[in-house]
């Protein structure tokens, strides 16, 4: 079976779509730019799709500010663009997902922030639905990921999340998933949250390595997270390597340069092939999933990892 789209045949791992998040380092300026009218943002997205097709990547995380509650009314203005992009996505098999900013917090105590979070999720879900319009009936590719958005010392945060999750439209609930954290709510806690409200859980290998108070083995942890996803939606899994090098802060006016150590859980520029290999070994008898690489080098990290893994399997 093929390990990655566009790669040589590998002996055992399942086919997965390997993806990267937002940043395109290999083509400076491609997809760049802050919030804009949706029509311009979609033009930029079309350029990104062309690059993804060129390098054989079928999984990509869009900018979280591609659409906002304030620009939601622009969906209808951009109907033709959205229809063309949806047809292109269905033809190429490229999956687009989103990871909302940490400010999107369904578990927070602040009602104004919670209301804004609900609106942001609804807007992104509406966009992803339009981009899935040419998929087979009932097919969902575009999912969006959030964190609980509450302090782990506040157990009521999970209850608030569950309550607000149920306040979302059916469209938004069908596309929303929650991710466990390296210094917050654990995988075990989110598995209980899933039992309470049905939200799928994104497995993050680095977060599991850094914070696994339930001592769940890797294969079991991955399998439990995958089992929270509906049969019709392929689960999303995250992989990153911890940053180990120091960070230089250049000198500024009246302040000398500084060398800062890496923060716990900070993502590295690239992904260690050994980490992917451990994950694939753990996944041998588990359902298929798509793998999002969370590396600062973006597309270059993905291309390097594909090369490294191909060399390992030769």
From TrEMBL:
Domain of life: Bacteria
Molecular functions (GO terms): endonuclease activity; hydrolase activity
Keyword field: DNA damage, DNA excision, DNA repair, Endonuclease, Hydrolase, Nuclease
Membrane-crossing residue ranges in chain numbering: none
Annotated Pfam families: UvdE
Any one Gene Ontology BP term: nucleotide-excision repair
The name this protein goes by in its record: UV damage repair endonuclease-like protein
């Amino acid at each position: 079976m093929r390990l990655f789209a566009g790669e040589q045949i590998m002996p055992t791992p399942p086919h997965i779509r390997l993806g990267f998040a937002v940043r395109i380092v290999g083509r400076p300026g491609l997809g760049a730019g802050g919030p804009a009218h949706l029509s311009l943002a979609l033009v930029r997205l079309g350029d990104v799709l062309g690059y993804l097709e060129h390098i054989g990547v079928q999984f990509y995380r869009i900018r979280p500010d591609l659409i906002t509650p304030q620009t939601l009314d622009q969906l209808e203005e951009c109907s033709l663009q959205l229809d063309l992009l949806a047809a292109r996505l269905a033809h190429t098999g490229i999956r687009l997902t989103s990871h909302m900013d940490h400010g999107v917090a369904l578990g927070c105590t602040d009602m104004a922030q919670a209301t804004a979070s609900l609106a942001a999720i609804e807007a992104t879900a509406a966009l992803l639905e339009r981009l899935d319009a040419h998929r087979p009936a009932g097919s969902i590719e575009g999912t969006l990921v959030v964190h609980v958005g509450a302090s782990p010392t506040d157990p009521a945060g999970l209850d608030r999340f569950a309550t607000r999750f149920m306040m979302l439209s059916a469209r938004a609930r069908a596309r929303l998933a929650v991710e466990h954290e390296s210094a917050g709510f654990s995988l075990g806690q989110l598995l209980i949250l899933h039992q309470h409200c049905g939200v799928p859980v994104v497995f993050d290998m680095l977060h599991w390595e850094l914070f696994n108070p339930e001592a769940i083995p890797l294969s079991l942890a991955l399998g439990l997270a995958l089992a929270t996803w509906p049969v019709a939606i392929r689960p999303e899994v995250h992989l990153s390597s911890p940053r180990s090098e120091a960070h230089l802060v250049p000198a500024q006016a009246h302040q000398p340069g500084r060398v800062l150590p890496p923060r716990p859980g900070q993502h590295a520029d690239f992904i260690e092939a050994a980490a992917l290999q451990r994950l694939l070994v753990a996944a041998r008898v588990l359902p298929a999933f798509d793998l999002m690489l969370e590396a600062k080098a973006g597309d270059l990290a993905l291309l390097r990892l594909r090369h490294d893994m191909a060399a390992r399997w030769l």
